[in-house]
Hints:
Blueprint lengths: L1 H21 L1 H4 L17 H6 L10 H5 L9 H14 L3 H15 L18
Helix pairs in contact: 5-6
Amino acid sequence: MGYYVLYSLTFILFVLVTTLYLSRDRWTHLVPIPEYIYTRLPSSFSGDIESGFTSRDFDLSSNVSAGDPRAGLDQPAKREVQKIMKSRRVDFDEARRMYTEGRFAKNNIGPDGRPRDPKFVSFS
């Protein structure tokens, strides 16, 4: 008797999930997606400029005026910089500095750019 209930529930669940999957184009627009979960990042230098990923010190307009065919800035880095800009409410230059210092710290490099490795030898 218990197996019939388990099989029935499994079958009903399978039919429900299949129906929802096949009709997803009719109901997915009704599901609210918060802005902080997903933000489409631009994929060109002109899109990066429009999204605020440029400043006086980091100017992308020369790339656009030169007709640079590349796809723009690095996507994972843009995502992290945008997250820093939104969460800490800082401008692009400050967020880029924070991101770079975080990457330095992850790779055991000091904020001044020198390695923190005690075995490091420099001949300068």
